[in-house]
Amino acid sequence: MTPLLGRRARQRWLHLIIGGALLMPYFLVGTVIVGLYRPDVNVFNSPVNQLIAFAYALPMAAVTALVPLARPLSVAVARALCGLPPDRPLADGPARTRQARVRSAAWFTLHVGLGGVISGMTLALVPFAVGVMGLSFFAGLREPLSMYLPEGLGRTWVLALAPFAGIAMLVALTGCAAAAGALLANRAPVLLGPTPDDRLAAAERRAAELAVRNRLARELHDSVGHALSAVTLQAGAARRVLDSDPEFVRAALTAIEETTRRTVGELDTVLGLLRRDGNGAGDGAPDQPSGPGLDALDGLLAHCGLPVAYVAGGDPDGVPGAVSREAYRIVQEGLSNALRHGGRGGPVRLRITVHAAGELEIVLASPLPERPAAVRPGGGRGLRGIAERAVLLGGRTEAGEHDGHWRLTALLPLHTPAQEQR
């Protein structure tokens, strides 16, 4: 009896009765329409006219369910009373697209239509079945029906079978309610679930969130990671010559101070991006470049902890802000890699050239170590971050051994894809 009278079946029956209650205003309007062209007939005494009024009510219910807010209301009721399995998700939020509104209207129409039928059966069949079961036990119930009951042995059989007939009616009603509730539960994920447009919008939101996370991860990795690497190496070198070379120690401490001061400013910028992207508000446009650019390159090279031979070609000051900012980060990560893994065979060579063809070229070459550097757990994100920065601007990068050096090359277009579209 669990499928017919269990907790889930009772909840679905209640859901159907709610649908019948929601149908009543439309049904009453339908009776008014029937009464307009059949004024001589009492609609409530004619089953045929009631069916006609029911047929008028369903289209009216479908039209009113086309409003966007109909879907979240239907979803809330269906989740509470339909007993849906957890692996069948429903859509959240109003129906914004035409497809979603049509599906919501179809669900609402199915709900109130089945609900009206089951509610009518419940109201009519339950007292009738109880009356039939009582024919054998109460003479007062038999008197109004005496003219319809057979005489003699036939009446005896009718009265003997009446309780079983009443029970059969209730079982049939319960089965119809359970079947209608199961049908609603089966159709709910289809009609109230995410449409293809909803899934596409959700995928776009997830992609945007992932892009924000990756951007913040790159910012933190490049700024904080570079600063920690430089500070660690400079502090270690200063400790080794603390007693023998005070001037070097003083220079190392100055470099540490400048590096940490600059990194605090960059970290504040990254945290500002985090607050803006997390809360959807903040100062400036979402795509506005922030953080240091090529104009801050001299300070980076002076306190990076490595001797750098820098050559500039073209006009770096005319590089657009977004490209300048990403170029700075690429150089910063390249210097960080040279600081951690490079050899001591000479200075790092850096060349930044602005070509007339509209490209910014970055070439950074550092000496190879005498023996391979130990692989850090969780490392290896720097080159991937550099490649991601270049790809976002429509550029490309290359990294590998070349003429006894580890060389990093990046080509960045001066006009990003977004600017070209505008």
TrEMBL record:
Pfam families: HisKA_3 (PF07730). Residues 213-277 form the Signal transduction histidine kinase subgroup 3 dimerisation and phosphoacceptor domain. Its EC number is 2.7.13.3. The chain crosses the membrane at residues 12-37, 49-70, 105-138, 158-185. It comes from the Bacteria. InterPro entries: HATPase_C_sf (IPR036890), Sensor_HK_TwoCompSys (IPR050482), Sig_transdc_His_kin_sub3_dim/P (IPR011712). GO terms for molecular function: kinase activity. It catalyses: ATP + protein L-histidine = ADP + protein N-phospho-L-histidine. This is histidine kinase. It comes from Streptomyces poriferorum. Keywords: ATP-binding, Kinase, Membrane, Nucleotide-binding, Phosphoprotein, Transferase, Transmembrane, Transmembrane helix, Two-component regulatory system.
